[in-house]
Each structure stands twice: as C-alpha cells, then as structure tokens.
Write a structure and sequence with these properties.
single chain; mainly alpha; rod-shaped
C-alpha cells in the first residue's frame, strides 16, 4: 500500500489553519480584484489624476483671466493680434530682425 497520500493528508490536517491563512493572504494580497497590489496602483493613478486636475484648474484660471481682459479692454485684443498673428496697424511698418549668423569660411580652418 502507498503511504504517501496518508502522509500528505496528515500534514494538511495538522497545518490546516496555516494553509488556509497563507492561501487567504495570497488571494487578498495578489490575486483578487481588490488586492493590495491593485489598491496601490489605484492610489498612484488617483495621485496622478489629482495633479492633472490641479494643472488644468490653474490653466483654466489663467485662460479665464485672459478672456475677461479681452472682453474689457480692446487694447488686449490688439496686443494678442500683434504678438501671435503679426498684425499691424495701417500706418506702421514691421521689421523682423533675424539672429541668424552666416558661417565664416575662415572659422572652420585650423590656424597654425
């Protein structure tokens, strides 16, 4: 007769509470949908989303302030038109200055 199943059954009976506890911890800690691992992932996602909310709220406040400025002051519209769209008044000229530097032929040569 094979005594191996009897030995295994005796071990299971002796350590049944330990086995159930370990299996429960594994299920709660790693396998379950409400596991600690997923809970930590969800907390990290919540933290990132709260940071995004703060960033969007500050951007919204800045944009709202700009909108109020545009609605109250016609010079604000003119300023935006000049800065963003390079518009000009009828009686003025616009000069665009460039910072481009032309390479000098002698700069690339080695000096002795």
């Amino acid at each position: 007769m094979n005594h191996r199943p009897i030995v295994i059954w005796n071990l299971i009976c002796r350590y049944k509470y330990l086995i159930v506890t370990v299996i429960g911890i594994l299920i709660v800690g790693f396998i379950d949908d409400n596991s600690f691992r997923k809970r930590i992932d969800y907390e990290l996602q919540i933290s990132d989303l709260k940071d995004q909310i703060k960033r969007y709220n500050t951007q919204h406040e800045e944009d709202l302030k700009k909108l109020h400025d545009i609605q109250r002051d016609p010079k604000a519209i003119e300023k935006i038109a000049r800065e963003r769209y390079f518009m000009k008044a009828d009686n003025e000229d616009i000069y665009i200055l460039s910072d481009d530097v032309t390479p000098d032929d002698n700069q690339d040569e080695a000096t002795e």
